[in-house]
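Known limitations

Files may contain more than one protein. Parsers should not assume a single record per file. Below, a two-record file is shown to illustrate correct handling: read the sequence, read the token line, then continue until end of file.
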Amino acid sequence: MARLAQSEVQSDLRRIRSDSGDIHRRRAVSVLFIHRDADVADACLEELKKAKFSVRADFVLTIAQCAHQLRSQSYDVVVAEYPSPSCKGSQALQLLRQTVQEIPLLLLTTAIASESIAQLAVADVFDCVDRQHLAQLPMVVRRVLNEKRLRTELEEAGKALRHSQSLYQALVENPAYGICRCDVEGKFLDVNQALLTMLGYETKAELLAANHTSKIALDLGYGAPLPGCFRESVRIEPVEVEWRRKNGTTLKARLSGRGVYNENGDFASYEIIVVDVTEQRALEDQLRRQAFSDSLTGLANHRLLFDVLQAETCRTKRTEREFSLLLLDLDGLKEVNDRFGHLVGNRALCRLAQILTDCCRSVDTAARQGGDEFALVLPETGADAATLVAWRICDLLANDGEEPALSVSVGVASYPKDAETIGTLLYAADRALYAMKQKRSKAARAGHVA
């Protein structure tokens, strides 16, 4: 669903492939540095290149020069020195934030005081990297680029949802409303034909005899008005309820209305307008599922994976119970596509997805990162138990009985044993995955079966 301006940002964790003779694929990133020290900027570039980034970089000294540069060039990340003569204090940070707009902003900092940290939060800076720990820069760059992609996809999903809502609004403005009258206890006194159709009844007598909705007034959150209550105050704010149709299916209805009084000024009944929103809510649910699932495999996508990891790290901090992450890479997918075609390649991805689903508990989350990369989050699971799950997945895929035969490489990492943040957890699992690939590659070259 989501599209980026140039090309979709590939998975955070795509690394070196194990086949001998393969050239390391590099992830291109354009960086604008706002920094006075060329040596520091060069050190940043070296760290990014070590992490297999292909970097295009430009350098400016001030925020004004940054604004001029951004008018003629586009960048993936802006890396700025803080504090500096041109950027110090909350006002300068706000100006810098406004200048770079939606581009991820990283600040290269020294040991800063708590007051300065608060200023960074007010300025909505994406992240900070200490100059003494530049090795963390590639991981932070990956994370902020991922967050930018997630925000873009969420905005587009929101636009689709708002579009569906506007279409629905055009539908509900037509005169086909369900209308009914009910007493204080919620018993139907009268209904129109539109409501009969919604509920699947043929006649008013049939619906009234069925005592279909026992407590419509309770659904609305109202009882009889109190004595002396002003008529204007007996208005029903729109609410949504679920009713049962005659055939047993669910009708999701939006109710609104007002109180009705007799000629003596006494409260007599409620008049309710009923709008069928069943299809609209189903469409919204579908859009939400599409926003958080992979269209090919049906697994969670990278956005939902990130949310699950965030929730699990928070839960571990509360309960002190570890969880584990499995990163999986389907071996030789390119060769499968080249030899058998992309339909077989897609089927290979679905075969692995099905095995992940079969191996999941109800609390686990299986996700497709993109391409041939998958992930499995195992709550309250240590590294040893997670390793057993990994080997089970490898065995099930190798012996699933379909052709061509497939294999998968797996990396295992646990939180908080192997990492302190989501980024370092992903990095630890990715390194374990790469180590497994290297081991298989060496075994293959030695003439052994991996």
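...continuing to the second record:
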Amino acid sequence: MKLDLDTFLAYQLINVASLVSNDLAKVYQSKFDLTIPQWRILANLAQFGQSNAKNLCTQANMDKSTVSRAIKILVEKKLLITQINSEDKRAAMLSLSEAGKDMYKKIVPEALKWEKELLASLNTHEQGLLISILNKLKNNLQA
């Protein structure tokens, strides 16, 4: 039996995810000097408000060392604020600084424009179907 990579779902999803991530990175790398992991940390903190490094690993689906390096640089750039977690002194709570919020607000319109251009090849029904299918697959894998 032979595996056909042109129709093997995992292979196709990984390739599309990589292409999407690398293409979107052009939006925030050249203008804002952010790496893919740094952007993912900013985006997750913008959505969830506050988190710790361990939870960010899960939320952003990245390994601990990648998250730690990204956090360190974002703190050095003064885009993140760290606060002692009163419940667990070992796990600092992270949130966006005002500069981090400002940067995020500048990136979002450009990211949405990029997404609109990417999805322009799909009609409205196909766009909804794509999101629905991806959510079903994600929920099935998380169950």
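Parsers that stop after the first record will miss the second one. For reference, the second record is described as follows. The chain has a mean pLDDT of 93.
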